[in-house]
Amino acid sequence: xxxxxxxxxxxxxxxxxxxxxxxxxxxxxxxxxxxxxxxxxxxxxxxxxxxxxxxxxxxxxxxxxxxxxxxxxxxxxxxxxxxxxxxxxxxxxxxxxxxxxxxxxxxxxxxxxxxxxxxxxxxxxxxxxxxxxxxxxxxxxxxxxxxxxxxxxxxxxxxxxxxxxxxxxxxxxxxxxxxxxxxxxxxxxxxxxxxxxxxxxxxxxxxxxxxxxxxxxxxxxxxxxxxxxxxxxxxxxxxxxxxxxxxxxxxxxxxxxxxxxxxxxxxxxxxxxxxxxxxxxxxxxxxxxxxxxxx
Length: 295
Hints:
The protein is an alpha+beta fold and about 300 residues long. The chain is about 25% helix and about 35% strand. It has an 8-stranded antiparallel β-sheet with strand order 1-2-3-6-7-8-9-12.
């Protein structure tokens, strides 16, 4: 006999832009987000019996997101995601868990004539600040913060050798190579009892994000990398040390390969090994290295 074993539903790709206008200074601040809301609870009959009486319409989720953005701060995103997730659990008694994902897009204030412009911004990269908050009835709020889409590259200071060599291994060992990746780094906070507890932690969220970003960039640049695995582990250790209320750190780092091009066929032109200057960037396949380090 068939039985519904798991179910959730919601609204994805809710685009939200909010502007804060300081009437005294004339300075404006902007935030642009993409939000996803997913609900779980006593919703089985909507699947098995076509009973829509238990359904919070996904358009209602979208409108609620706009209303909450109007009535509450949207920064830091950890707070807004927690407020929105808690709203659904507290408002609808048959909803027992709400997951809210917030992707904050970059708008960096322009500098014009040497001064920060009061209301003009530029998007200086695809990097995003991501948050996932899960409010669960009777449990509290679990929050994961993250950096995503941060593309980095260094032209030396990375090696890869000593790996398993057998009849299937074609890769050559290298003592120096280009290392590039697109950083996805996340950290999980200790469970918050309520939105008030999240509010009390507001200063910690920006501090943790800045620390994680600075540690990621500095370690990537300075580490004489023996492997992506070892470098990312060093990053995790440092973030755990810098942010005591974080209980786990995770990384997902795809290897963005750059291959030497052998040009010796053209008049003996040297472009390999120590003579390599021109490379061919690769799209796929690529290595994908992941880890989670917990206390």
